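User: Hey, quick favor. My workstation is busy. Could you predict this chain's structure for me?
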Amino acid sequence: MSQDGSVVVGAADGMGLAVSERLARSHPGRLVLADVQGDKVAAVAERLRGSGTDCVAVPMDLTDPDSIAALAEVAGVPTRVALVAGVHARHPALDMTEDLFFDVLRVNLVGVYRSPRRCACWASPRRRTGSGSIRWRPPRRGPR
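Assistant: No problem, here it is.
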């Protein structure tokens, strides 16, 4: 990937989709879109390619280290990384099962922690040049 590339994790819908669309308009480099919703993120990438963006979709699960490694291989060393993936439980906290609670933590905490660590090359441009960024945006909704 060129030094002007971007990666969006959680790009299939919601805030991740909005970030993807904005990057496609404002940054001309390659755009790598990743999401656990493989078919959906592929459709987003296809639509953005149709408007002239150099874009590729990668099915990716934040809870699977092999999936994270596959994304790193495709993404190379991007300038910008947006971690916008996450899940939210639509249950009152007192009604949430322990299994569901730990599933949410596994994605929103452990998965988001693992991604940039497994893709250590993502930090290289920032360390080398003082530019580039990795941004994380947690899901807006959670247990009530």
